[in-house]
Every structure is written in C-alpha cells, then in structure tokens.
C-alpha cells in the first residue's frame, strides 16, 4: 500500500469511529473524539426494551460458555446483568440520566480555586468491559457562577457510567464543567486502576494510570502547582 492509501484508510476508519456524538450528530463532530461513539439509533429503545434484548443476548453468551441456566443461582443472571447495564453501570449513556445542575451567582466573592478531591468512581473499560476503579480530582476558578459541591461528584459519576477509556472520561468531565460553569478555568486529574491491566493480560497489579486536563488559568504553572499541592502530588 502506498503512504497516501494508508493515510486515507486511517482517516476512513477514524471517521467511522467518531462520527456520532452524544450531543449532536453531524460532520462538525468529526475530529471531536471527546464524544462517546454512539449509533444513530442509540435512543430509540426504552430501558425496558434494552433490558429485554440484553437479557436474551447475555443468556446466549452464558449458554455458549457451557453454563446450565436451569441452575437456581444462574437462571436470573441474564436479567440481572441486563438491568445492571442499563440502570446502573452504563446509565451514563442516556442523556436523560444527566444530572440537573442549578447555577448560582458567586455572591461570596470567592475567587480562589475550589478543589473537589478524591471522588471515587467505578467505570468500565470499553475494550474489555471490566472495571476501572479510580479517584477523580476536579477544580474550578469561578467566572462569577458556582454550583453545589455534590454536582461536581455527580458529573464525574455520570460520565464514568459508560464504557470508557480514561483519556475520554477526563475530557468529557472537563468539557461538561466548562459548559456548566461557563469558564475555561477547569482542572481534572484522574488516577485509576484498570482491571484489564491488573486481573488479566499483563496482570500488573501495582500500576495505575494518571490523566489530566488543565484549562484557562490552570495552564499557568503557579495555578497548576497549587492544584497539585492540594492533591499532595
Ligand atoms: N489508552 C487507553 N488504553 C486502555 C484503556 N483501558 C485499557 N486500555 C488498553 O487497551 C489496549 C487494548 O489492546 P489490544 O491489544 O487490542 O487488547 P488485548 O490483546 O486484550 O491487550 P492486552 O491487555 O495487552 O492483553 C490494552 O493495551 C489496554 O491496556 C484506557 O483507558 N486508555
Ligand atoms: Zn480494558
């Protein structure tokens, strides 16, 4: 294959992967791979319909593995897994579960950074569908608006409840905070353990993965250092 053909193929593959956004579908999103790749018909089924379909398919997976679903302990598993996927661990794929955020004026005139640290989250790796367990630390410097503290945690949980890669999770949290708080001044740092790295494959039980995003004033060295100091990093 000539170099140009290789480049073209790469572009085609990437384009297919990132065409569909969870906010909007359109060409303007080609290149904005911050969005979870979603099918065009992603929101057509009700939760009940999704659960029924996943139950059916999961039953088939278990039977293919050789399990006898007449066993008392196993017979409810396909339904349990389906409900867990739709209502719990992948509930962040559905915008109806996005946390409602009320914005308040910064009447306290607090203009230093606010850090919400050690937000424990459970996500799942989109390559293997096994858990990612980690801590997210987020910070913002108000541009005149503030939100309730718990909403910072809720935003982290919403995006964690999707099949994820850590880089995208980091960027989705940062982008949402920038939108909600109407400021570029956002920092996000995630330190997480990927069970696909520790419990299988390379089986490295000690390594963790750190990703970060620094926007606006956090791009200045002193501000970034202050944020990291609060995290004891
Ligand atoms: N960049 C990135 N990679 C991830 C993340 N979670 C898991 N991975 C990696 O995704 C890769 C998938 O690689 P493949 O070679 O296709 O899969 P695999 O054969 O199961 O790879 P091994 O885990 O090395 O056995 C692995 O290296 C994972 O460690 C993540 O959040 N970000
Ligand atoms: Zn994985």
UniProtKB/TrEMBL annotation:
<dbReference type="InterPro" id="IPR043133">
    <property type="entry name" value="GTP-CH-I_C/QueF"/>
</dbReference>
<dbReference type="InterPro" id="IPR001474">
    <property type="entry name" value="GTP_CycHdrlase_I"/>
</dbReference>
<dbReference type="GO" id="GO:0046654">
    <property type="term" value="P:tetrahydrofolate biosynthetic process"/>
</dbReference>
<dbReference type="InterPro" id="IPR020602">
    <property type="entry name" value="GTP_CycHdrlase_I_dom"/>
</dbReference>
<feature type="domain" description="GTP cyclohydrolase I">
    <location>
        <begin position="55"/>
        <end position="230"/>
    </location>
</feature>
<keyword id="KW-0554">One-carbon metabolism</keyword>
<feature type="binding site">
    <location>
        <position position="196"/>
    </location>
    <ligand>
        <name>Zn(2+)</name>
    </ligand>
</feature>
<dbReference type="Pfam" id="PF01227">
    <property type="entry name" value="GTP_cyclohydroI"/>
</dbReference>
<dbReference type="GO" id="GO:0005525">
    <property type="term" value="F:GTP binding"/>
</dbReference>
<feature type="binding site">
    <location>
        <position position="128"/>
    </location>
    <ligand>
        <name>Zn(2+)</name>
    </ligand>
</feature>
<comment type="subunit">
    <text>Homopolymer.</text>
</comment>
<dbReference type="GO" id="GO:0005737">
    <property type="term" value="C:cytoplasm"/>
</dbReference>
<keyword id="KW-0378">Hydrolase</keyword>
<keyword id="KW-0547">Nucleotide-binding</keyword>
<dbReference type="InterPro" id="IPR043134">
    <property type="entry name" value="GTP-CH-I_N"/>
</dbReference>
<keyword id="KW-0342">GTP-binding</keyword>
<feature type="binding site">
    <location>
        <position position="125"/>
    </location>
    <ligand>
        <name>Zn(2+)</name>
    </ligand>
</feature>
<dbReference type="GO" id="GO:0006729">
    <property type="term" value="P:tetrahydrobiopterin biosynthetic process"/>
</dbReference>
<keyword id="KW-0862">Zinc</keyword>
<dbReference type="GO" id="GO:0006730">
    <property type="term" value="P:one-carbon metabolic process"/>
</dbReference>
<keyword id="KW-0479">Metal-binding</keyword>
<dbReference type="GO" id="GO:0003934">
    <property type="term" value="F:GTP cyclohydrolase I activity"/>
</dbReference>
<protein>
    <recommendedName>
        <fullName>GTP cyclohydrolase 1</fullName>
        <ecNumber>3.5.4.16</ecNumber>
    </recommendedName>
</protein>
<dbReference type="InterPro" id="IPR018234">
    <property type="entry name" value="GTP_CycHdrlase_I_CS"/>
</dbReference>
<comment type="pathway">
    <text>Cofactor biosynthesis; 7,8-dihydroneopterin triphosphate biosynthesis; 7,8-dihydroneopterin triphosphate from GTP: step 1/1.</text>
</comment>
<dbReference type="GO" id="GO:0008270">
    <property type="term" value="F:zinc ion binding"/>
</dbReference>
<comment type="similarity">
    <text>Belongs to the GTP cyclohydrolase I family.</text>
</comment>
């Amino acid at each position: 294959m000539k170099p140009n053909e290789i480049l073209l193929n790469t572009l085609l593959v990437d384009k297919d992967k990132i065409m569909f956004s969870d906010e909007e579908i359109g060409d303007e999103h080609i290149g904005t791979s911050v969005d979870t790749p979603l099918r065009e018909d992603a929101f057509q089924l009700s939760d009940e319909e999704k659960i029924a379909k996943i139950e059916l398919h999961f039953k088939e997976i278990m039977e293919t593995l050789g399990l006898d679903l007449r066993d008392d302990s196993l017979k409810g598993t396909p339904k349990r897994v389906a409900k867990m996927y739709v209502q719990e661990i992948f509930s962040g794929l559905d915008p109806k579960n996005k946390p409602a955020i009320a914005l308040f004026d910064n009447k306290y005139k607090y203009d230093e950074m606010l850090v919400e640290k050690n937000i424990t989250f459970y996500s799942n790796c989109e390559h293997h569908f096994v858990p990612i367990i980690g801590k997210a630390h987020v910070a913002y410097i108000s541009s005149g608006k503030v939100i309730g503290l718990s909403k910072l945690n809720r935003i982290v949980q919403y995006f964690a409840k999707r099949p994820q890669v850590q880089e995208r999770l980091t960027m989705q949290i940062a982008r949402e905070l920038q939108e909600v708080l109407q400021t570029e001044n956002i920092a996000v740092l995630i330190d997480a353990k990927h069970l696909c790295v520790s419990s299988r494959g390379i089986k490295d039980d000690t390594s963790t993965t750190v990703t970060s995003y620094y926007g606006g004033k956090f791009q200045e060295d002193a501000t970034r250092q202050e944020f990291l100091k609060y995290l004891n990093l």
